[in-house]
Amino acid sequence: MQVMSGKEVSQAVYADLHARAGSFVHSHGYAPTLAVVLVGSDPASQSYVRSKKKACLSLGFGHQDYLLPEDASQEELLGLVRRLNADNSVHGILVQLPLPSHMDTGEVIETIDQHKDVDGFHPSSVGKLLIGLPTFVSCTPLGVMEMLDHYKIETAGKHVVIVGRSNIVGKPLAALLMQKGRDATVTVCHSRTKDLASIALQADILIAAIGSPRFIRSSMVKEGAVVIDVGINRVEDSSAKRGYRLVGDVDYDTVSPHCSFITPVPGGVGVMTIAMLMKNTLQAAISLADKDTK
Ligand SMILES: NC(=O)c1ccc[n+]([C@@H]2O[C@H](COP(=O)([O-])OP(=O)(O)OC[C@H]3O[C@@H](n4cnc5c(N)ncnc54)[C@H](OP(=O)(O)O)[C@@H]3O)[C@@H](O)[C@H]2O)c1
Q: Residue 102 has what pLDDT?
């Protein structure tokens, strides 16, 4: 069994981005720049925003933070997004989710210029992904693909079972893996799936994106399968400094002895998401620069 290390893969991604960002700055005279919009003061969201800023700074990217109060109106947020769309010094726009309940998330995402949609959540980006056109892909699924590639895990002809059908993880992963070139046979399971355990047991590659601690047990995993755990769940742990620890959707201790490859939590897929956001931001800057010269 080999552990797939998000740390190792993300370090390789950052090294590549560092070199490519350097040559971008050299030839264009400005840095790829990400604008991050946060509405309210949710501590988890604040922490994600800080991590994104840190990643930008580590690569020499430009970074702009926009903080709106919890009671900001939809129009204020849309106005800010439109200003960022029109601002040539901004190449990627990310509105940190979840938004406060009085806001219409769909309208906000649709207002982001597709060319700056580095989260890959815009309906146009999702549609392009499904029909196999180049586009921004949401960062966590992209991170999973990067890990599969890094460890040279073949997907062609393999049965991939994805547990979870969210718009940000399960669905884009299914779209990526079924494309020509990837050629996997994909089954997507969800909370209404009957006999999920026996479907999971057929998987050559099993991907868990459920949000339920240690949901995948060893009896659901075929001997020699590749297991990718996207889940990040807090479970109480009085011996931990913070009173909790993070576990995945896979029962790692019992499942890992049966796998050929497995991602740990923490230190697996979770580490990849921001690296992929940086990759998308550089791609946005390159594409916008190309568009300007045409
Ligand atoms: N950076 C990262 O690594 C990253 C990024 C995003 C998410 N995550 C983690 O990944 C997990 C999933 O996130 P998400 O945003 O995709 O969650 P989500 O939107 O809540 O979707 C969860 C999916 O799991 C399915 N599901 C829930 N309980 C189930 C059950 N008992 N049996 C079968 N399917 C079940 C749901 O089915 P229905 O559709 O039928 O309700 C849904 O499709 C979470 O732990 C989250 O923290 C990690």
A: 98
In this structure, the residues whose C-beta lies within 6 A of any atom of ligand 1 are 140, 163-166, 168-170, 189-193, 196, 209-212, 230-233, 269-270, 273
| Beta-strand relationship, 159-163 and 33-39 | unpaired
CB 10 within 8 A of CB 48: no
Q: What is the whole-number distance in angstroms between the Cα of residue 58 and the centre of ligand 1? A: 30
Q: What is the pLDDT of residue 97?
A: 97
- pTM here is 0.97
Q: Which residues of the chain have pLDDT under 70?
A: none
Residues ≥6 apart with Cβ < 8 Å to 255: 216, 217, 218, 221, 227, 262
| pLDDT tens digit sequence for 62-88 | 999 999 999 999 999 999 999 999 999
Coil, helix or strand at residue 113: coil
pLDDT number for residue 117: 98
> Which burial class, exposed, middle or buried, applies to 23 when counting CB atoms under 10 A from its CB (0-12, 13-18, 19+)?
exposed
Whose Cα sits closest to atom 3 in ligand 1? 270
Rg of the chain (C-alpha set) = 19
Mutational pocket test of ligand 1: of 190, 194, 246, 280, the residue with most ligand atoms within 8 Å of the beta carbon:
190
Treating both helix axes as pointing N-terminal to C-terminal, what angle do 170-178 and 139-150 enclose, rounded to 10 degrees?
50
C-beta of residue 224 within 8 angstroms of C-beta of residue 205:
no
Which tens digit of pLDDT belongs to each residue from 252-272? 999 999 999 999 999 999 999
